[in-house]
Amino acid sequence: xxxxxxxxxxxxxxxxxxxxxxxxxxxxxxxxxxxxxxxxxxxxxxxxxxxxxxxxxxxxxxxxxxxxxxxxxxxxxxxxxxxxxxxxxxxxxxxxxxxxxxxxxxxxxxxxxxxxxxxxxxxxxxxxxxxxxxxxxxxxxxxxxxxxxxxxxxxxxxxxxxxxxxxxxxxxxxxxxxxxxxxxxxxxxxxxxxxxxxxxxxxxxxxxxxxxxxxxxxxxxxxxxxxxxxxxxxxxxxxxxxxxxxxxxxxxxxxxxxxxxxxxxxxxxxxxxxxxxxxxxxxxxxxxxxx
Length: 291
Hints:
Blueprint: H1 5-17, H2 20-27, H3 31-45, E1 50-51, E2 58-59, H4 61-89, E3 94-100, H5 105-118, E4 123-129, H6 132-140, E5 145-148, E6 157-161, E7 165-172, H7 186-190, E8 195-197, H8 209-212, E9 217-219, H9 222-230, E10 235-239, H10 240-249, E11 252-254, E12 262-265, E13 268-272, H11 279-289
Helix pairs in contact: 1-2, 1-3, 1-4, 2-3, 5-11
């Protein structure tokens, strides 16, 4: 069977309008052209697709079934035309970005917003995960870009350094550790509750690394961790940009450790070396690395 787009369009228009005249008007075709397209479709399928007994032409049950497939064919045509239009402009159809939740999402969204203002037709999928989960999602979703704190285990990736993300070890102002005088020692921290996001990893080289395995509260993201800290539940590392307001208000206090209470997360941006970068992907990389 050699089903054509003209036949699919004719059956679709006829089903929606009920008369050959109205269908022909929509398709800018002669009445006889639409009639011929439907008749040849019936001949090729060997089915009676139309009930011609009434004033309005209706589809038979067989015609309804064939119509479903015709509309799928027309939808495929629309998707192909849209994809071709996107490829002509250089905008890839989809860009998937997976980033570690410690990285400021606003930075990514600002870059995406700039592309939308430029007229990008690309669909952006932006997902957050943490630590080893970032690379796992990157591979599972076949994403184009990954921002991670940990070095990837996979190969075939190009890596670009991003600006460091300062972090502080903090607790609520009423927490015993925050009220302690002088520098805190390891045994002081060990006696209290360390809050983590999805656990930790030795490769982060945190000063509390020796305490990570004993953490009894593992949270889903930094928003939950911040809430726990503000409730005085424990202490933990927080990216400075997420707690600036609470630090100014004095709600959170920086803990004074013997060897320092600051840390700098070092995110890196990765993309697949052998995959040609599209216009949107290239501009996202440029926006994130220009600083």
